[in-house]
Amino acid sequence: MTEPDNEPTSDAPNDRYRAPALDKGLDILELLAEQPQGMTRAEIVKAMGRSPSEIYRMLERLVVRHYVTRSQEGDRYALSLKLFVLGHRHPPIERLVTRALPAMDAFAKAAEQSCHLGIYDRGNITVVAQVNGPSAWGLSIRLGVRVSLADTGSGHVLLAFQPETRRALMLAEHVALDGEVPVGATELQAILARVREQGHWQGESQQAFGVTDLSMPILDSHGHALAVLTCPFIRRIDRHVGADLDTVRGLLKQATQGLSLA
């Protein structure tokens, strides 16, 4: 049964093609955008002056489509990061990749290591650019692969350099990937604090032996991470003399600082 159209009529040109259901959904999104701590359903109903049944149906659809998140207790609703992700998709990503690739190429040649660029995407990280080092040895990540937000250097860096409310939403949207190593909330907070203090992540890979992950943020003008550049450092043990870990870390820092807006 079609929901009755109780919207007031208007002769304004902008109201020529009216879609009341769509308007209700957009009204909810705009309302929640002003409430970083979220709102209860009753608060949304009161603020919008609509019937509880109308708001309930619309909220449920927005939750199903991942535009809105519901608290574990089920009583509060908040915007997810889906609109943020949609707003930063293809054209901005293409511009970021186009700008980043020359810096990534220069890093890979100087460090003789591979590197990859990741962005936040639907609860985890998507690799949007990857450059191999010039030597015969190296670890590369396939373009387009999804990487865990919770147990990787890339994820720790992206989480560490976010406002608290956005970080909470990112973690709420996170879905564990195959093979992911669980990280407790207390441990994760300690890791993120250390990353913020150091300005980067350095540590043994949780996915492969013999690899040291180096991850650094590409920051916007507010100091928040737009993306993360990661080098899976592999130490040569033959007679070839290449850049050591400290040198590679310095080169990665140089690349990310050159790409950052902060």
TrEMBL record:
IclR-ED domain sequence ranges: 82-262
Give UniProt keywords alphabetically. DNA-binding, Transcription, Transcription regulation
Recorded hits in InterPro entries, A to Z, give: GAF-like_dom_sf, HTH_MetabolicPath_Reg, Tscrpt_reg_IclR_C, Tscrpt_reg_IclR_N, WH-like_DNA-bd_sf, WH_DNA-bd_sf
Q: Name one Pfam family in it.
A: IclR_C
Which residue range or ranges hold the HTH iclR-type domain?
A: 19-81
What's the name of the protein? IclR family transcriptional regulator
- Organism, as annotated: Ideonella azotifigens
